[in-house]
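Customer escalation, tier 2.

The customer says the design service returned an amino acid string that "doesn't look like it belongs to this structure." They asked us to rerun it and document both sides in this ticket. The original structure tokens are below, unchanged.
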């Protein structure tokens, strides 16, 4: 833990129990070089950033670290306390980790699960403890010592795979497989850092805007243009937004402004990752500098921001450069909506606030949510993130009480609202120095009129005569569904759900159909809704949406029952699988 001029060590006992006979040993050694390097910014101060939450809100990652400035992230310790009643009591160890570096909208690191991140599997073999040099799970409890269900302590030190950042870093991890487990969390992240920044965004070319294209001499061969409606992957990034995107099969050429004192330039591209394997040769002022490859693809999160580094050998000392991108003939068309030039520079104190966020658009999602998107703000450094404030009143105050989230990219989804409920929003940018800009003008929209109930969220049921589990399936929404392991006619399960408004609803059920499914019916508050559905489908598993029927519901909680009513003669089993229930508000009723 390097320090320049002094250090203070404190031991704090917050247990409420007096401790006696304890000793502390602190070792230190003088090194003039450390103080000099800290003052010059060559090395960073040690940070141990702690946080805790009794339960992180659904669809928000556990915020392991949100840092501005520059530094290196070296690891984390985390304690997770699972809640009672989960179908899989270890599910809190299933969440993916995501790392956002230097204001890039897409995660630079997207892992496969909590247990994997901490370098294990099978939930550390159902709770076995292990301590290795760089990772482990040193403690586990099951329904004792204050642990109501299952509790796990884990750690990881990232020496060979530390994550460096030059302006900002966001590290998060899901709580549960679909980020909804009500687990208690506490964490401490370890990193070295300085408060100043070393990046400047020096230019932006919008490939879908004719004025921007003309200003940057933008040309593209074999180009097509369309408007893409899509989302980013990751934290609160399920907001859909529209913007023009281009695809080129021939060379793409444009000129960008860069900082003459740069130590290299990062070229950040926003594009469509619908087609995998995009590949192109990059030239700067006629000099080849490498191949830009993007192997990823996604059909559900089409927007991607990726980065290609232009070395100082071709950009240093210049105030502008001409970039030419030559797509490979054997690869899909090269996609781009915009390019940002981010110059790597000597560290500086970012004291100027970013510009005001403009063009904020709020739009009703189909569900009980509102999607927001906006134009990137301007800054003398790099934008670290955007704070979103919301209120039911038109005069939105940008304070902590109204802060609903922070986004790295230019979009955000406000979820869990009422149906047809009006909201008002302002957005402001925060830069790499932690400076906040002025809030945007107010944008408003009303939430959608469709309530989505993920069937796996109804597990475990309130009552059942057969086993009911949350089962994983790539074809299902949120990659999971509710599976009743029924074997005979008459078996059923009952769960409770809530609606935010009184009115008439249309119920649509998304069933999981395959060769071993039964015929099943749905009832709400003991009254059958629609006709039974035959889940038999030969030849493979599929999600089948069926309009079940209309029902009048009062605001508040209700009971939903699924019952096996029959079995197709060709079916090999009597299982029932449900992906989701959709309740669409047709007509609000204010007299109930």
């Amino acid at each position: 833990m390097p320090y320049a001029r002094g250090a203070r060590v404190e031991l704090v006992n917050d247990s409420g129990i007096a401790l006696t006979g304890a000793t502390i040993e602190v070792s230190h050694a003088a090194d003039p070089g450390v103080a000099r390097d800290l003052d010059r910014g060559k090395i960073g101060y040690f940070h141990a950033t702690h946080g805790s939450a009794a339960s992180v809100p659904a669809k928000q990652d556990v915020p392991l670290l949100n840092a501005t400035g520059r530094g290196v992230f070296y690891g984390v310790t985390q304690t997770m306390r699972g809640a009672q009643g989960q179908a899989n009591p270890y599910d809190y160890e299933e969440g993916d980790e995501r790392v956002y570096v230097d204001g890039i909208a897409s995660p630079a690191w997207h892992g496969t699960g909590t247990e994997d991140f901490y370098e294990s599997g099978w939930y550390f073999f159902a709770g076995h403890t292990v301590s290795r040099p760089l990772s482990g799970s040193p403690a586990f409890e099951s329904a004792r010592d204050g642990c109501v269900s299952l509790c796990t302590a884990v750690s990881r030190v990232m020496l060979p795979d530390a994550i460096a950042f030059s302006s900002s870093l966001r590290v998060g991890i899901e709580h549960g497989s679909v980020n909804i487990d009500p687990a208690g969390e506490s964490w401490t992240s370890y990193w070295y850092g300085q408060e100043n920044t070393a990046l400047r965004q020096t230019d932006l070319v919008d490939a879908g805007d004719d004025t921007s294209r003309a200003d940057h001499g933008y040309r593209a061969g074999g180009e097509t243009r369309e408007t893409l409606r899509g989302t980013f992957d990751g934290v609160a990034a399920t907001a859909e937004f529209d913007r023009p995107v281009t695809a080129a099969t021939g060379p793409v050429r444009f000129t960008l402004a860069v900082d003459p004192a740069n130590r290299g330039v990062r070229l950040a591209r926003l594009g469509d990752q619908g087609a995998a394997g995009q590949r192109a040769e990059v030239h700067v002022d006629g000099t080849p500098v490498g191949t830009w490859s993007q192997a990823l693809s996604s059909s559900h999160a089409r927007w991607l921001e990726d980065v290609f580094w232009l070395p100082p050998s071709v950009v240093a000392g210049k105030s502008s450069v001409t970039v030419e991108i030559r797509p490979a003939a054997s690869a899909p068309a090269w996609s781009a909506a915009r390019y940002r030039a981010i110059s790597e520079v000597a560290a500086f104190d970012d004291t100027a606030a970013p510009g005001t966020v403009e063009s904020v658009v709020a739009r009703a999602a189909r569900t009980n949510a509102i999607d927001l998107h906006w134009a990137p703000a301007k800054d003398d450094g790099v934008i670290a993130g955007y704070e979103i404030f919301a209120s039911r009143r038109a005069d939105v105050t940008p304070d902590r009480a109204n802060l609903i989230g922070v986004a790295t990219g230019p979009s955000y989804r406000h979820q869990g609202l009422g149906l047809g409920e009006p909201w008002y929003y302002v957005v402001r940018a925060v830069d790499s120095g932690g400076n906040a800009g002025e809030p945007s003008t107010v944008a408003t929209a009303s939430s959608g009129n469709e309530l989505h109930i993920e069937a796996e969220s109804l597990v475990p049921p309130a009552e059942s005569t057969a086993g009911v589990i949350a089962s994983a399936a790539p074809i299902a929404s949120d990659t999971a569904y509710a599976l009743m392991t029924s074997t005979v006619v008459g078996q059923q399960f009952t769960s409770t759900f809530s609606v935010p408004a009184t009115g008439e609803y249309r119920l649509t059920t998304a069933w999981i159909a395959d060769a071993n499914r039964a015929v099943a019916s749905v009832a709400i508050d003991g009254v059958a809704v629609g006709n039974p559905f035959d889940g038999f489908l030969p030849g493979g598993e599929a999600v089948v949406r069926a309009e079940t029927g209309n029902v009048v519901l009062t605001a508040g909680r209700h009971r939903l029952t699924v019952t096996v009513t029959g079995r197709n003669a060709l079916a090999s089993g009597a299982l029932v699988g449900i992906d989701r229930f959709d309740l669409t508000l047709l007509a609000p009723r204010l007299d109930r």
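Tier 2 assessment: The sequence is consistent with the input. Residues 32-40 form the longest helix (9 residues). The domain at 32-195 is CATH 2.60.120.1390 (Jelly Rolls). Sent an explanation to the customer and offered a walkthrough call.
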